[in-house]
Amino acid sequence: MSARKGTAAQVMPEAVLANDDIGLATRLKLYRMQVEMRDFEKRAYDLFLQNLVKGTSHLSLGQEAIAAGFGAAMRKDDKSFCTYRGHAHTLARGVPPESVLGELMQRDNGLMRGKGGSMHLTSVEHGVLGSYAIIGAHLCIANGSAWRAQYLGEDDVSVCFFGDGTTNIGAFHEALNFAAVWSLPVIFVCENNLYMEYTPIADVTPVEHPAADRASAYGLPSIVIDGNDADIVYRTARAALDKARAGSGPSLIECKTYRHSGHSRADPAKYRPEGELERWLERDPVKIYRARLLEFGVSEDEIARIEQESRRLVNAATEACKAAPPPPAELLTTDVYADGVWSWRN
Amino acid sequence: MAELTYRDAVAHAIAQEMERDDRVVFLGEDVGKAGGVFKATVGLHEKFGPKRVRDTPISEQAILGAAMGAAMTGLRPIAEIMFSDFLAVCWDFVANEFPKLRYMTAGQLSCPLVVRTGNGAGSRFGAQHSQSVENWAMMIPGLKVVAPSSPRDVVGLFAAAVRDPDPVIFFEHKSLYAAKGEVPDGEIVDTLGTAKVVRSGQDATILALALMVSRAIAAAEMLAARHGIDAEVIDVRSLVPLDTQTILGSVARTGRLFTVEENPRLCGWGAEIASIVADEAFFDLDGPVVRITTPHIPLPAADNLEDLALPTVDRIVERVLRAMT
Ligand SMILES: Cc1ncc(C[n+]2csc(CCOP(=O)(O)OP(=O)(O)O)c2C)c(N)n1
Asked: Crossing angle for the helix pair A24-49 and A285-295, nearest 10 degrees?
C-alpha cells in the first residue's frame, strides 16, 4: 500500500466518517494493540530460543485482532479469563509488557513473581482474572464471576477466551448450559484457529463450526465472525457486552482465525498442509488493519510512529527483564494458604 | 441448647452463615426447592429465596467452577456435591483450580468457598455412592479438609469453614444425618485444625473421624469395662489443618496409638499420622502404631459385606487388645 498523506477528511467521504461507528481514536488504539502484541510475541519467541523465556510459551501470532477487538471494547471493570495462550489477552487489558515478559522469563518483576509462569498470567488490577492451563475449566469459572455481578447488581461482564479444541470437553457444555439457564452476563469467545494442538479440529469434530454450531443447543444464537478483522471483532464484542450488561444473558462468539506459529515452544507446525499458512498470511490481521488505517486517511508517518513506539516499549521491557533478579527463595512456601503459611499442621 | 439432628444442624449452619453475611450464596443439585437429597437443606430456599439458594443442572464442573469464580470475585459460595464420590467428576477444580489459585497468582486471588458433600458408607449404596474420600483431598496443598462427627461440630466447623479465606471441603457423613445431639444456642464458631478429646484416658490413644468417632468411643467404653484398658479417644475433626499438638500430646501420655479410618488402608490419613508420630514421638511409643481401616477394596452393596468392610466396635476392641495384651 502506498503512502497516502493527509487528514482523514481528505481521504474518506464525509458520509462514511459521519457514520463510522468506531471512530479514528479507537482505530488507532486497535492498531497499536495489535502491533504491540505482535512485537511482544516475536520477542518472546526470540527470548525463548535464547533460553531466557523458560518453560513453555504459546504464541497467538495471527490471532491478535480478537484480543485487541475485545480489549478495546471492554470496560475497565470487565473481567477477562484466558488460556495458556494468553499473552495478547493480558496485554489487551493494559497490563505493562514488562510485567508479562518478566513472568515469561520467571523473574521477580513478573506479574506473579515467577510463581505462575507463562500459562497462568493474572493481573487482578487490570481485570485479568487468570489464565487457565487445563482446558475448559475457566468457562465454568467465568460463569462464577458473572454470577457475582448478577447477584450484587454490578454491571461488569466476564469474557472468556478459549480455543476450538475446548469445545469438545465436557466443561464447555456444562458452562454454556449453566450460563444460559442462569442468564449470566458472560461472553464465551472461541478462537477457532483450526487446530487443537497438532490435530486439525475438523478431524475430531463433526460440525463445521465447533462452537457456533452448538450454540442453538443452549438457546443461543449462532455467531461466526472473521476473527482477523479487528473492526468486526470490536463491533461484535460491543454488541455482546451491551447485551450482557443489559441483563439479556450470555453470548457465544466463534472467531475464525489462524495461528501463524506452532502450538507451543519451538513447534515447527509441520502438520499443516502446504500453502495454508501463506493463504492466511494474506489475511494477517496486522496487515489488514494497517491498510485500513491508510484508507481512513491515517498517514504513514503516524502509523510508523505507532510501530516505533511499540518496538521501543518491547525493547525497554526486554532490557528491564534481563536485568531483573530471579524470585527470592522465600517465595517458595508463601501463598499456599491465606495466612501465608504452607504448613498444613497446627 | 437444642437437640438437633446432624441433618438439621447442616441446614441450621448454612442459615446461620447466610443470615450473617449477604455474600454467602448456596448452589447445588436439588438443594433448593427439593431441600436436598438427604433433606439437609430443607427450608433454606423458602427462607432465603431462589437468588441465594440456587438449584443447578447436573453439572458438577459448572457448579464448582461457578463457586470458584464467585469466590475469587467477592462472594462466599457454598457448593454442594451430592455424593462425595462425584467429586471425581469435578476433580479438576478440587485438585487443580481452587487450591492453586492463591499460589499461582502470588496472592492476587483467593478462593474462599466451601464444598459440602455427603461422604461415607452405611447406606448399602455400593461402591460408587459410599466412599469416604477425605484422603483424596487431604494430599492437595492449598485445600482444607473437615469432617464433623456431631451436630454441634457441624455448626461450629461449618461456620469456621465459611469464614475461612481458603477453600474448604466439608465432608458430611451420610450415616450421621439422622444422629441427634445437643447444639448450644447462639453462634458457635470453631477453629479449623483443632482436634477434640472426646473421651480421656491413660492407656492408649484412639484417633477417629466422622462416623468412626462413636464407634471408637463405644470400643473405649468396652475396653474400660471389660478389660481395664483406659483409652483416650480423639475426634480429629479436621485433616487439614491437622492438630498434631493434641495428637502428639496424647501419645506422649498414653504411649499407644490406634487410628480408626473409614477408608481403604492404602494411603489413608492414619498412615500420615503414624508417620508423623514415628518421626517425632518415636520414643514416646510403647508399641507399633496400629491402623484399623477398611480393606483395600471398593465397597460392596450387600449389608453383611458392607458391615464387614467397615471398622466395627468389636474389631477396634479386638485390635487394641491384641496390641496391648
Ligand atoms: C484437560 C486438558 N486436556 C489436554 C490438555 C493439553 N492441551 C494443551 S493445549 C491443547 C489444545 C487446545 O486446543 P484449542 O482449545 O483449540 O486451543 P488453542 O491451543 O488452539 O488455542 C491441549 C490438548 C490440557 N491442557 N488440558
From this structure: 150
